[in-house]
Amino acid sequence: xxxxxxxxxxxxxxxxxxxxxxxxxxxxxxxxxxxxxxxxxxxxxxxxxxxxxxxxxxxxxxxxxxxxxxxxxxxxxxxxxxxxxxxxxxxxxxxxxxxxxxxxxxxxxxxxxxxxxxxxxxxxxxxxxxxxxxxxxxxxxxxxxxxxxxxxxxxxxxxxxxxxxxxxxxxxxxxxxxxxxxxxxxxxxxxxxxxxxxxxxxxxxxxxxxxxxxxxxxxxxxxxxxxxxxxxxxxxxxxxxxxxxxxxxxxxxxxxxxxxxxxxxxxxxxxxxxxxxxxxxxxxxxxxxxxxxxxxxxxxxxxxxxxxxxxxxxxxxxxxxxxxxxxxxxxxxxxxxxxxxxxxxxxxxxxxxxxxxxxxxxxxxxxxxxxxxxxxxxxxxxxxxxxxxxxxxxxxxxxxxxxxxxxxxxxxxxxxxxxxxxxxxxxxxxxxxxxxxxxxxxxxxxxxxxxxxxxxxxxxxxxxxxxxxxxxxxxxxxxxxxxxxxxxxxxxxxxxxxxxxxxxxxxx
Length: 508
What we know:
five-stranded mixed beta sheet
């Protein structure tokens, strides 16, 4: 009981780390064969890039899947939302595992991107997955955002299989809500403003939302310092150093966000556990009080039950003594009456009549049991086979399917199981059974007669093996002389290939 209460109270704590999603995206998860390059079309989504087309070349090599993606004419990620700064490629498994495959950068030259597209080569350990590209605040996010720009399509190729993959967005993917104060003004004023600085600012804002100032002070402080240093380098004209330092700021901010999220969750779980411990202590105190009351009540009930049992025992003794005296009185009265009205001869006659009645009753009971058994067997036979009532008796048609094949004269195993009730019915009656074999119209008359006789004898041998006396059985071969239907179709021939067992009218 205590364990059950503890589990019930800890459910919110245990479920704290699980987040649900109200947004899903449907795509195709492909399973790639070993050692084969598969060309997978990549299409833009209707909302963000409906005219965008590209291609991914996927090859599975031992325990790694190599991926090359070529897509052109993607708009800058910043045009998709105030917090979007770059594109990220994802491999999403049907189990919901999201593998960040890296940042997808479009060419700096729009003309070259339009002519040649932008390419990236990456890899994943997964074999079955969907490929999608999303717009993200920075390239080190741990789960995809809802801004799905490009997704793979299905491939009809030997060895490649695909299934529907429903992707749920959760975790830190809702960055437009997390970034409470996005500031793209610097980029709007300066077209050459490095995207790394924008991603670093976004990563710091996300970390701040997860209270990195409180739970991950050191990496958060270092991320801010590196961001400020990167901006200073950019203002002095050192763009290369600015990009490199900004990338370090992104990684520090992402680390601060993960650390702060874990520590905040651990703190909340500790608080919840403390509250539940206190509540459990109160429950245990209450439980001890209730147990004390129960023990007191149980003691009272036990005393009352003991007294009641004693009274019931005395009452049973009185009833038993009264019954004994009554039986003795009745016995004395019957003996006195017999002594007055009957002689010794009368008593002997009564005993003889009693024995005779017992024997007649036993025979009647045996006859009734036998008739009941015969009725049950008849019903079972009529359920398993087609039967007909004729003036000569009950005719049972054993179909062609009871034998091992259409030319076979041997019973199959299941056929014997079906024939058991029929054998028992013949044994349970005093009647004779006539076994008549029939064939279809194929072959000569001699072949037809031999086939029908062999099948009838197979049934005869089975009945004898089940205990039917051989003198109560007779075998006949009718060949194709008595067809039930025409032999113009396989079904008709199968119907005519049968064995009929006639149980004579002497059946009870």
